[in-house]
Write a structure and sequence with these properties.
five-stranded mixed β-sheet; alpha/beta; 430 residues
Length: 430
């Protein structure tokens, strides 16, 4: 029996053999269920077409030969009245080299990394993400929010690290925390009660007196039954006419409502590390203008990002949609041998992007027509924005006390200046 990873390669072999029969079908849906069992789905208009039915039968016969028990033994060819309805709100992607063949992945979780939303017009949304935790991502976000607010900007900060919340504690003293948080809104929204908590999920930080830092925490001052609530936030919402609103769409709706009411200039989103439901929503579904990929120079970092990039490649439209928004951030740059460390970080980031996202430039072609960058190009997404490691900041119990001291301000710009300037450049490009 073939393994799960062999399913799609084997199907591609069959489709290459069956090119002429495939041409007779407008669109072919390949449904891969929770157990990794495959079925073919075609438009019901072909159900009475003997020629097309025979073509489909032959394709199914060859898939059986290649997949064996991975191809359903009963009802392995199905006819549906609306293929568009079938693929709506489920993870799906066009099979590479076969644009009319759509793979549906039936997942226990409803995250969808392969379908990436276009940039949301209006308020700038910027995601802080890391494949591994403990790289100073949340601290960097706090510092950037302060720096932008010091220049008169209205900055909204969302703590979407729902399973390990804490960003708000660095921006707000406990007595200033709002009554509710993001998890409360998501829970109450399931039963049309979100308006009860919505006015009370934002608190203003005292960090800046020039602009504003609007903090939306994961939970409120009293977390209540946080773990019980957390187990429900990923739920889809039942809608009229037997439709559903996926949880990531609900999250997007919350963000839209926050922007409409509070009118921030920029929204900084602290994503959960790793590859999970929250990360999927933050990177793929919120229409972020920029996605900052925090990295330390380790095998775990690059292998993790390689998994993510490789998954995006399953849907080339998604790759083209997201790749220009990515930016590597060199986190926790060591105080000793910095130049050597940054050079190694840049080398590994460039190798990753070259292997997975950059387009090879054919000989005698205009390189500007391709998404490709030299290793030394400081404007390239692989070239790391450096954040200097600093033991002083690591021991601060919070950030709202010392930031008013001019010496601390200078230190913050010395450490986080590159990422601050990068985000200021995005905001200025309006």
């Amino acid at each position: 029996m073939i393994t799960f990873d062999e399913i799609i390669p084997e199907i591609k072999i069959v489709l290459q053999e069956q090119t002429e029969n495939l041409k007779k079908i407008d669109r072919l849906i390949i449904n891969r269920d929770l157990n990794g069992i495959v079925r073919l789905v075609v438009d019901e208009k072909f159900e009475d077409n003997a020629e097309v039915k025979e073509a489909i039968r032959l394709i199914g016969q060859r898939i059986t030969a290649h997949l064996g028990p991975r191809f359903a033994d009963k009802n392995n060819i199905m006819y549906e009245s609306s293929l568009d309805d079938l693929i709506k709100d489920v993870p799906n992607f066009a099979l590479k080299d076969f644009p009319k063949v759509i793979i549906i992945d039936r997942l226990l979780a409803e995250s969808d990394w392969t379908n990436v939303s276009v940039v949301k017009p209006g308020t700038h949304r910027i995601v802080f993400y890391s494949i591994k935790g403990g790289v100073g991502r949340s601290t960097a976000l706090s510092m950037v929010s302060w720096a932008l607010a010091e220049e008169g900007r209205k900055v909204m900060v969302l703590d979407l690290d729902l399973e390990s919340p804490g960003l708000s504690s660095s921006l707000l003293p406990e007595e200033k925390c709002p009554a509710y948080g993001i998890v409360d809104w998501l829970i109450e929204d399931l039963v049309e009660n979100s308006e009860t908590v919505f006015p009370y999920i934002v608190a203003l930080s005292d960090l800046s007196h020039n602009g504003a830092i609007q903090v939306v925490p994961a939970h409120g001052k009293d977390p209540g039954e946080y773990i019980s609530k957390l187990g429900r936030v990923w739920m889809s919402k039942n809608k009229p006419l037997n439709s559903r609103e996926l949880w990531q769409n609900r999250l997007n709706r919350l963000l839209d409502e926050l922007e409409k009411k509070w009118k921030p200039d920029v929204v900084l989103i602290d994503s959960r590390a790793g590859i999970d439901e929250v990360s999927s929503a933050c990177l793929s579904s919120l229409g972020a203008e920029s996605i900052l990929l925090f990295a330390i120079d380790s095998t775990q970092t690059w292998s993790g990002y390689k998994l993510l990039f490789h998954h995006w490649l399953r849907n080339y439209d998604s790759v083209r949609t997201i790749r220009e928004r990515l930016q590597i951030v060199g986190a926790l740059i060591p105080e000793l041998d910095q130049d050597e460390y940054i050079a190694g970080l840049c080398e590994n980031a460039w190798n990753l992007f070259t292997d997975e996202l950059y387009e090879p430039v054919p000989a005698d072609e205009d390189e500007d027509a391709y998404f490709n960058f030299d290793k030394s190009d400081k404007d390239a997404p692989h070239f790391p924005l450096s954040i200097q490691g600093n033991r002083g900041l690591a021991v601060l119990p919070n950030l709202y006390s010392p930031l008013q001291q001019s010496a601390v301000k200078e230190k913050i710009y010395a450490i986080f200046g590159q990422i601050i300037d990068h985000i200021k450049g995005i905001i200025a490009n309006e």
